[in-house]
Design goal:
It is a single chain. About 5% of the residues are buried. It contains 4 helices and no strands. The chain is flat, with a radius of gyration of 21 Å. Helix content is about 85%, strand content about 0%. Helix 3 (about 65-95) packs antiparallel against helix 4 (about 100-125). It has helices spanning about 5-25, 30-60, 65-95, 100-125. The two termini are about 20 Å apart. By secondary structure, the chain is mainly α.
């Protein structure tokens, strides 16, 4: 299991810094800057707490990444790649007849990617 402490801390510090900068640059809109600053502090506190809780649980369990997990991720990635490739081909074919917005196509691709990856991992964890 990957730890996402770095990404959470980076997000928290960026929110805090953007809150302070927007407070200094535009003092007329104090509420938005204060909200951003408070959200950054909340994310910081939550990320540190989650990190310490997970490190305690991992010390107790210490589960290793085995070959079955790699097989599941490989199958899930393969099916996801095939489905996304066919979706792109279908969208390219449809774009000749229908005017498609780039935002709609990208949103459809991203949603399909997330949903397919999660469903295939769930399916292969049950099957294998």
């Amino acid at each position: 299991m990957k730890r996402k402490l770095f990404q959470r801390l980076l997000t928290a510090f960026l929110a805090i810094i953007f809150g302070v900068i927007s407070l200094l640059m535009n003092p007329t809109e104090k509420m938005a800057a204060i909200y951003l600053f408070v959200v950054g502090i909340i994310i910081l506190i939550v990320s540190i707490t989650i990190y310490f809780r997970k490190s305690e649980k991992e010390d107790e369990l210490s589960k290793e990444y085995d070959e079955r997990d790699a097989l599941i991720e490989g199958h899930a990635a393969n099916i996801t790649m095939q489905c996304i490739s066919s979706l792109i081909i279908i969208l390219l074919f449809l774009s000749n007849f229908i005017v498609l917005s780039v935002n709609v196509v990208l949103l459809l691709l991203i949603l399909t990617l997330f949903i397919l990856n999660a469903v295939t991992k769930f399916f292969y964890e049950r099957v294998l």
